[in-house]
Amino acid sequence: MARTVSGSRRSPQVTGTSRGGLRRKTGSFEQMQWDPKRNKMRSGTQCRFCRAGVKYIDYKDIETLSKLLTHRGKIYSRKRSGNCAGCQRKAKRAIKRARYMALLPYTA
Ligand SMILES: [Zn+2]
């Protein structure tokens, strides 16, 4: 029986560069946002409410609000949901109102 030695198949693991964050380019950095799904920079707003031009987030709109919740009923962070600060606050208020009206769960 000729067994092949598979122990030497390990990848060399080049971990010399441990850059912390993104390298910031001067100038148009404000327009660009990091997209964790595609692993590259992306231009324009990522906020779904700003893109749709929403002024007021309705607490009765459960379909939209439930996209901002985990399956346990927790609110996704801004980093996760991609909302801007203002829309995250509006969404937070809407979700909490919806919870009070028993449209959304506090916990599931
Ligand atoms: Zn927004």
Write a brief structural summary.
28% of the residues lie in helices and 7% in strands.
Kindly provide the radius of gyration, computed on alpha-carbon positions and rounded to a whole number of angstroms. Answer: 22 Å
Q: How far do the termini sit from each other?
A: 56 Å
Bound molecule kinds, no repeats? zinc ion
Oligomer: single chain
CATH-defined architecture of the domain at 28-100? Irregular
- In percent terms, what proportion of residues is strand? 5-15%
Please tally the β strands and state the result: 2
CATH superfamily membership of the domain at 28-100: Ribosomal protein S18
The CATH class of the domain at 28-100 is Few Secondary Structures
Provide the residue-averaged pLDDT: 78
Give the fraction of residues assigned to helices: 25-40%
Main structural class: alpha+beta
Parts with pLDDT < 50 across at least 5 consecutive residues: 14-18, 24-28
Strand and helix order: EEHHHH
Shape summary? globular
Strand order of the largest sheet: 1-2
Q: Give a short account of the largest sheet.
A: 2 strands, antiparallel
